[in-house]
UniProtKB/TrEMBL annotation:
Descriptive protein name: Bifunctional NAD(P)H-hydrate repair enzyme
EC number(s) from the headed UniProt entry: 4.2.1.136, 5.1.99.6
UniProt entry keywords in alphabetical sequence: ATP-binding, Isomerase, Lyase, Metal-binding, Multifunctional enzyme, NAD, NADP, Nucleotide-binding, Potassium
Domain YjeF C-terminal: residue ranges: 229-494
Cofactor comment: Binds 1 potassium ion per subunit.
Cofactor dependency: K(+); Mg(2+)
Keyword Glycoprotein attached: no
Entry binding sites for (6S)-NADPHX: 55-59, 136-142, 165, 262, 317, 368, 435
Residues holding AMP: K405, G406, H407, R408, T409, G434
Keyword Hydrolase annotated: no
Subunit text: Homotetramer.
Protein encoded by which gene: nnrD
Length: 502
């Protein structure tokens, strides 16, 4: 599924109106009707539409008209007097008024009073629905003044909130929430979901997102972001021919460090993700921790011991040896191993405090927010507030694929393309799961996938395995080893989605 920014959506709107000749008021009517049809299915006792003065507000007025036409008790609370509306928004308001839609200009307490029926809960669900049509995709500044008051008052009610296109106060392009923002139960996105509701923190405000076809064609050639979906990758992973052998699926190399347990998790994950062979470089004592499935090469120079691998994983469990990862990493690159995963302590070999030593080749950087902050010279709050920008900056400066871990993991390409992973759960919030992810991605790279695809599919498989482990064991009791054990379930789910798309 494509994820569009405000600029991209503006372009698609313009092309539909100017090149295809569809009047803007027709598109507004389609949008408002889509909202109304969704609200109708909720069977509310009454509907309160909060309308701003822009085109998004016009969608709200249209929705109110269609709901009134269907016999619902509906009223509009406007952020301004209707006389201040312009163009199609004014036309939409006048049509709604002719249909008998009542309205008022917002005064403090008006939303609470209009939604008071929500206090009389029905089966635990408020019988009042609030339609949030205050701010649209073109607004990126913090909500303030009357709009901010309306947002805060709506959030304080017990009403069920449905946002038009995106929750007011969320940046459509970045997911940033710079000020007060609606916390919706559901969002009806027009033509395509906005990138800002797919990534955190915006995703935490959007609730369930539904995409409505309102007659605006979305050209994939002009969209730079999408969700990770097995259907998009097809059979390039997860399907094997009868003549396959271990050499068909690549050799993964892992540099051991002070905490070999982390490397063990990465190696076992790589095997479960389909690597033909896993080789670890370390000592005889460390070898005792590894299953017989893994080959251990004794020595102190990983760059020399791993020259023949198809992908290298550097970082898991290195500890203070991470300081040596820079030498190992670039020695491996010079030896021709220019593919793999750079994780954990080894990330310092690429960047620290905004100073980058770009990595040329098919490498994936896999920082969590704290590591990303250290690499960029930001603080963690900045990274979490601006996750898309952080991932894109990491990718551009490192010339590698950047995978920013966390809720709705972001995978960024140096050219600016972005993929958002929809799988995963809080079951993954335990030590060692990052090592598992590194192993999965390393295995996919060794099997011949390019780094961008490997990072995306790896994130999907890792997240799906976490979901499966959480369902079986509860999200409280999952360990990293449990996630590895559920990777076969994730592979089955991947295959099922691919088969269903054929």
């Amino acid at each position: 599924m494509y994820l569009v920014t405000s600029d991209e959506m503006r372009r698609f709107d313009h092309d539909t109106i100017q090149n295809l000749g569809v009047p803007a008021i027709v598109l507004m009517d389609h949008a408002g009707r889509a909202i109304a049809e969704h609200v109708r299915a909720l069977r509310p006792q009454r509907v309160v539409a909060l309308c701003g003065k822009g085109m998004n507000g016009g969608d709200g007025w249209v929705a109110a008209r269609w709901l009134r036409h269907a016999g619902f008790d509906v009223t509009v609370i406007s952020s301004c007097h209707p006389a201040a509306l312009q163009g199609d928004a004014r036309t939409a308001q006048q049509m709604a008024e002719r249909f008998g839609v009542t309205w008022s200009v917002y005064e403090p307490g008006a939303i609470r009073q209009a939604a008071a029926a929500g206090d009389l809960s029905r089966d635990g669900v408020s019988p009042t629905v609030i339609i949030d049509a205050l701010l649209g995709t073109g607004v990126s500044r913090p909500a303030e003044g009357v709009i901010a008051q309306m947002i805060e008052e709506a959030n304080a009610t017990s009403a069920y909130i449905v946002s038009a296109d995106l929750p007011s106060g969320v940046d459509a392009s970045t997911g940033e929430v710079p000020g007060p923002a609606i916390v919706a139960h559901e969002t009806i996105a027009m033509a395509a979901e906005k990138l800002g509701t797919a990534v955190t923190p915006g995703a935490m405000h959007a609730g369930r997102v539904h995409v409505a076809d309102v007659g605006i064609p979305v050209d994939p050639a002009h969209v730079r972001a999408c969700y990770v979906s097995p259907a998009a990758f097809g059979r390039q992973f997860g399907f094997r021919g009868p003549m396959s052998h271990k050499g068909s699926f690549g050799k993964v190399g892992i540099a051991l460090g002070q905490m070999p347990g982390a490397s063990r998790l990465a190696s076992l994950a790589a095997l479960r993700a389909g690597a033909g062979l896993v080789v670890v470089a370390g000592s005889r004592a460390e070898a005792q921790l590894f299953a017989p499935d893994v080959v251990v090469r004794e020595g102190s120079d990983p760059a020399q011991l791993l020259q023949d691998v198809d992908a290298v994983i550097v970082g898991p469990g290195l500890g203070i040896l991470g300081r040596e990862a820079r030498t190992w990493l670039f020695d491996l690159v010079r030896a021709g191993v220019a593919r793999g995963v750079i994780d954990a302590e080894a990330l310092a070999a690429v960047a620290h405090a905004g100073q980058f030593d770009p990595v040329d080749g098919e490498f994936v950087l896999t920082p969590h927010p704290k590591e990303a902050a250290r690499m960029l010279g930001w603080d963690v709050r900045q990274v979490q507030a601006r996750r898309v920008e952080a991932a894109r900056t990491l990718a551009a400066r490192s010339r590698a694929i950047a995978l920013l871990k966390g809720h709705r993991t972001i995978i960024a390409h140096p050219a600016g393309r972005v993929r958002v992973n929809p799988t995963g759960s809080s079951a993954l919030a335990v030590a060692g799961t990052g090592d598992v992810l590194a192993g999965v991605i390393g295995a996919l790279i060794a099997q011949g996938l390019d780094a961008f695809d490997a990072a995306a599919i790896g994130a999907w498989l890792h997240g799906k395995a976490g979901e499966c482990a959480g369902e079986a064991l509860t999200d409280v009791s999952v360990t990293a080893s449990d996630v590895i054990a559920r990777l076969p379930d994730a592979v089955r789910a991947y295959r099922a989605e691919v088969d269903a798309s054929v």
